[in-house]
Amino acid sequence: MEEQQRVKTEHGTHPAAGPRVVTLGETMALLTAERVGPLAHAPSMAVGIGGAESNVAIALRRLGVPVTWIGRVGADGFGELVERELRAEGLDVRAVVDGAAPTGLMVKERRTSRSLNVWYYRTGSAGSRLAPADVPEDVVAGASLLHVTGITPALSASAAEAVAHAVRLARAHGVTVSFDVNYRGRLWRRERAGEALRDVLAASDVVFAGVEEAELFVSPREDPLDLAAALTDLGPAQAVIKRGAEGCAALVDGLRLTREAVPVEVLDPVGAGDAFVGGYLAELLAGAPPETRLDTAVAAGAFACVVPGDWEGMPTRAELGLLTRREDVAR
């Protein structure tokens, strides 16, 4: 049967001034158990959306950066939800509505008050069918920065080629490339991921990775700053090691920096790394020094942890100092 699809290119509601970011990947419907305990006993589920690339896009948009998101959704209610939420956040949505595949699904179980389990139902999804033809050259060429992750190449051969195509376009047009490794063990083995993502890493200007993610490409190092340095030897000028509650370490154009995490009571850590990336990239595009980029990154990451959901807690610029404010009530 011939594939049935249509492309929607309706724009977000915010003005598109200043440097623009383009990102691409799968945004899924998200079902979250509304109380702690085994999923089998959950009486109700909250319905939302989530996806690494769109999480970063929302973080950037709330910090004032125009963003275009490219992806595929199914011709179903979940697909409509994804499009509606992303447009409501002010993104320029370039969505292929795929009539031959469903929107992917993510399910969260809060097994205890401190632990989360996440399952993905995305095999054969619309998002996994992303292809090079879905990536308009003019959109990438007109951007200031392209942001990709290691999740999309794990979904399918066509999705991997879409990411590679976008990176090639960015390089050809002088567009900065940002890459978050974002390794997902449920999608592929470490050895395969390291091999498949090495070319993306080499073509990137900025790379973000956790400690174990960095070790997909380089041998272990005791000092995370040395790990960042090893990544820059492979191509990027900027390497940032995300360390969760321990903060971050970065090598930026030869400058070695560390930052502690902002201490918060964690309600939901999913999306914190994406908020961190969004904070860093927003300041990079604003021309801020590396120290400011990391300060905003750790603040944004902390905000994502204090609100349930993958992206709902992303801060605006006016809110960045809120977590360190002495007074609990602003009057």
From TrEMBL:
<keyword id="KW-0547">Nucleotide-binding</keyword>
<dbReference type="InterPro" id="IPR011611">
    <property type="entry name" value="PfkB_dom"/>
</dbReference>
<dbReference type="Pfam" id="PF00294">
    <property type="entry name" value="PfkB"/>
</dbReference>
<protein>
    <submittedName>
        <fullName>Sugar kinase</fullName>
    </submittedName>
</protein>
<dbReference type="InterPro" id="IPR002173">
    <property type="entry name" value="Carboh/pur_kinase_PfkB_CS"/>
</dbReference>
<keyword id="KW-0418">Kinase</keyword>
<comment type="similarity">
    <text>Belongs to the carbohydrate kinase PfkB family.</text>
</comment>
<dbReference type="InterPro" id="IPR050306">
    <property type="entry name" value="PfkB_Carbo_kinase"/>
</dbReference>
<dbReference type="GO" id="GO:0016301">
    <property type="term" value="F:kinase activity"/>
</dbReference>
<keyword id="KW-0067">ATP-binding</keyword>
<dbReference type="InterPro" id="IPR029056">
    <property type="entry name" value="Ribokinase-like"/>
</dbReference>
<feature type="domain" description="Carbohydrate kinase PfkB">
    <location>
        <begin position="20"/>
        <end position="316"/>
    </location>
</feature>
<keyword id="KW-0808">Transferase</keyword>
